[in-house]
């Protein structure tokens, strides 16, 4: 049995309640000497030192509790756990270097994702401002064209021959009605349009079914939730 557990890469130590070591393999002996600077003579004391972090200089404790992790000077990470087996206590040490490396990579990726999220939020704000500017420009262009026609017609009316003059009242009514409708349409469609355009910029397709809420506050809340 001793020869078999000595071949294990995992550290194992079995000891009685008073700390007397009953069985220990080479790996656990090596770890005890590296971390505590002494041979393993007492299992209970080993566990107390691990829990309290009473280790050699250069050993970094990464976590404490039922599973205590330490980084050794050679860069490897070992995690120790204790378990009671019918009055016999077992301390196991597992090499978790790769696990901690993956955890570190995941943490760095989460930080990068948080930064990306912040950039996307900024991008959305930029898209929103760009949409506002473009729609204002479209509205101004449309109004400019309609009013230009009305002004030309009015000038023609003022300087034309009396028998050829036609009062451009319908053109002015249409221009004013267009002015009002354009403002109302922009107010109604802007938020939903912005949402669709922003989503398209992110590669997301938006399908709209049914009618948006008519109440302004409810519509804003709905579009904010969708965004």
Could you walk me through the main structural features you see in this protein, from its secondary elements to its overall organization?
- The protein has 227 residues and is α+β, with helices and mostly antiparallel strands.
- Helix content is 59%, strand content 15%.
- The chain contains 6 helices and 6 strands; from the N terminus they run αββααββββααα.
- The chain has helices at residues 2-6, 26-36, 43-52, 97-159, 169-201, 216-226, and strands spanning 11-15, 21-24, 60-63, 67-71, 77-85, 88-95.
- The chain has a 6-stranded antiparallel β-sheet with strand order 2-1-6-5-4-3, sandwiched between helices.
- A hairpin with a 5-residue loop joins β1 and β2 (21-24).
- α4 (97-159) runs antiparallel to α5.
- It is rod-shaped.
- The mean pLDDT is 83.
State the secondary-structure class.
alpha+beta
Low-confidence stretches: none
Succession of helices and strands? HEEHHEEEEHHH
Radius of gyration, in angstroms, nearest whole number: 38 Å
Q: What is the end-to-end distance? A: 63 Å
User: Which of globular, elongated, flat, extended, rod-shaped describes the shape?
Assistant: rod-shaped
Spatial ordering of strands, largest sheet: 2-1-6-5-4-3
Attribute tags:
227 residues; alpha+beta; six-stranded antiparallel β-sheet; 6 helices; 6 strands
Briefly say what this structure is.
The protein is an alpha+beta fold and 227 residues long. It contains six helices and six strands. The longest helix has 63 residues, at 97-159.
């Amino acid at each position: 049995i001793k020869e078999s557990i000595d071949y294990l890469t995992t550290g194992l130590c079995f000891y009685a309640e008073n700390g007397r070591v009953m069985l220990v393999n080479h790996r656990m002996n090596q770890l005890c000497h590296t971390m505590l600077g002494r041979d393993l003579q007492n299992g209970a004391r080993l566990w107390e030192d691990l829990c309290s972090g009473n280790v050699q200089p250069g050993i970094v404790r990464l976590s404490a509790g039922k599973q205590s992790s330490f980084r050794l000077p050679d860069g490897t990470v070992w995690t120790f756990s204790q378990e009671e087996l019918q009055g016999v206590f077992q301390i196991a040490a597992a090499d978790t270097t790769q696990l901690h490396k993956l955890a570190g990579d995941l943490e760095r990726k989460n930080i990068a994702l948080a930064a990306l999220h912040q950039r996307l939020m900024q991008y959305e704000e930029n898209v929103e401002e760009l949409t506002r500017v473009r729609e204002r420009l479209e509205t101004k262009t449309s109004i400019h064209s309609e009013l230009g026609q009305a002004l030309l017609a009015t000038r023609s009316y003022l300087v034309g021959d009396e028998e050829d003059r036609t009062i451009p009242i319908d053109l002015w009514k249409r221009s004013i009605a267009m002015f009002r409708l354009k403002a109302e349409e922009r107010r109604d469609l802007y938020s939903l349009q912005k949402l669709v355009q922003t989503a398209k910029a992110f590669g997301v397709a938006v399908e709209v079914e049914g009618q948006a809420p008519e109440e302004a506050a409810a519509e804003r809340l709905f579009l904010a939730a969708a965004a």
